[in-house]
Amino acid sequence: MNAPKGNHVTNFTVPGIKTSQADEIIGILEERMVATIDLQLTLKHVHWNVVGPNFISVHEMLDPQVDAVREMTDTVAERIASLGGVPVGTPGSVAERRDWQDYSLGKATVSEHLGALDVVYAGINSDHRAAIGRLSKLDPVSEDILIGHLAQLEQFQWFVRAHLESSGGELPTADIRRERDAAKAAIS
């Protein structure tokens, strides 16, 4: 039996939610699950490939973020299952369902990776906010889950930005949307 990919047909769901609503909620949560799977892999990639001054502080900062994002993924996947859905987190399925490109840096300096990660976090945090807005009309439990996750994700972005910010409060990656551009701006 093939797992559903974007076509949610639940036979049951939690009491108080119609199956048609559950299908919509599951679709939103699947988007966030795919994003957090991708984020945890990206963070680990950066952990392995960051070099230069302050290497160890950034290297060690990223592992707790990986662990927290992995836990977020698990919570979202379990919510999908509790709603009657099938959380599919296989590598092929994740790659097929995401609508963004792979992280674009390999081995790079602390500043370059943190500049790029600022863009990554900006994207995932913005998408989490949009999902929260959609869930506010559908399911307060799922909305609450993502609100809690967003609080952590925004804190992680703050950790990244604190390394990039000047003493005057300027952020070299402000308003930059591409990872490589942010990496360049971070070392300028």
TrEMBL record:
Pfam families according to UniProt: Ferritin
Q: Name one GO molecular function term.
A: oxidoreductase activity, acting on metal ions
Q: Which domain of life is it from?
A: Bacteria
Which positions carry the signal peptide feature in this UniProt record? none
Instruction: Cite the Ferritin/DPS domain residue spans from the record.
Output: 28-165
The family database entries (PANTHER family) matched by this protein are listed as: DNA PROTECTION DURING STARVATION PROTEIN, GENERAL STRESS PROTEIN 20U
Q: Which family does it belong to?
A: Belongs to the Dps family.
Kindly provide the name given to this protein in its UniProt entry.
DNA starvation/stationary phase protection protein Dps
- Provenance organism: Seongchinamella unica
